């Protein structure tokens, strides 16, 4: 067979590192000469499309007998600095065994992909790990007999017998992670100061039966992570493998890119690129989780998480103004002695300077004059409270406490109202897909209902302004 570079033209304008890509694929061709190369259109989760080089073929897997597992790898235009997108390519008489490393669509998830780093990561190395993982759990089964269970289904059944379970489940249950005793499992992604603060706060709150600290970064263990390992908190696990997050009820995202970006847009784009390698794996291993975003800027990164995960909007929320609101209500109650006002007071909108106080109900008054007087009085108290809060920064441990508060409400289905970043489209005449902090009732499945705010033209104007600037920023990002 001819080398792909001899019989196929790779557009230099599209592939930034064309020579490196060709050189690596020559090595693949030598090792696996049965692979065929082509240029086809790939459709991403957000619906966008791109013409990408891909190759298809089979890899040999020993699982009792020898099997040739058909796969297809898509090479991104930033290869070799970005990992390929990998799929099974089953024939018409094959079924996919959904499992630890394969989803229902045949997409392949491996630690090697998550830890991809040029030049040590190569396609040959990826395929070797793929073969090793498939030899542990065969990803396909024959459809020649509708009643014949796949090898992985039989192993699953045997495992259940040893655990005292004898009910044979349907094929749809194949590959479910069997840590059912861990009903309230939380994963925190990111082992920086904020991630560790979240782990400690959640553990102290006692809401979760298990907390996983997932550190997807390269290099030696950070100081905080090492200390967690040394002092071994009960029910806290530290891992670099995304499979450790499987079946989490809540996944907290705290990672932020520390690249050398020059502009604010570059910083956010670096975070988006980081999330592209995290969200698909997280959503694969915990398909029913609530994603709780604490990365910055929280409104944009919550939107990015929603788009990349394809989760319903109710299950993707940002920490938003929850901390600000709790502080605001505390100051009103304890410092300004305005308990009546505090229970209806919220900080909403955009984190930072553009956040705005609002109210979910109006005091009952007899006439319009009293309405205006009540509003003026309330505004003065709110302004005093906001002045007090100006000096209060958001340190890692304080955000961690806020995250623990939110996860507690979700895991325990408290149906408590929190000001969190949620999809604001349709609220306050906002027509774009942006996330803003608004009072929401939270439960097991995330946002149950948005609480109606009192109509205030000034507040609506500020929310619309924030929505406009956030939407403009999002339009410049490459998802």
What would you say this structure looks like, in words?
InterPro entries: L-lactate/malate_DH (IPR001557), Lactate/malate_DH_C (IPR022383), Lactate/malate_DH_N (IPR001236), Lactate_DH/Glyco_Ohase_4_C (IPR015955), NAD(P)-bd_dom_sf (IPR036291), UBQ-conjugating_enzyme/RWD (IPR016135), UEV_N (IPR008883). Interconverts simultaneously and stereospecifically pyruvate and lactate with concomitant interconversion of NADH and NAD(+). It catalyses: (S)-lactate + NAD(+) = pyruvate + NADH + H(+). It comes from Syrrhaptes paradoxus. The protein is of the alpha/beta class and 479 residues long. It is elongated, with a radius of gyration of 25 Å. The protein folds into 3 domains: 125 residues, Ubiquitin Conjugating Enzyme; 134 residues, 3-Layer(aba) Sandwich (Rossmann fold); 156 residues, Lactate dehydrogenase/glycoside hydrolase, family 4, C-terminal (L-2-Hydroxyisocaproate Dehydrogenase, Chain A, domain 2). The longest helix is centred in the last third of the chain and has 23 residues. 37% of the residues lie in helices and 21% in strands. Helix 11 packs across helix 13.
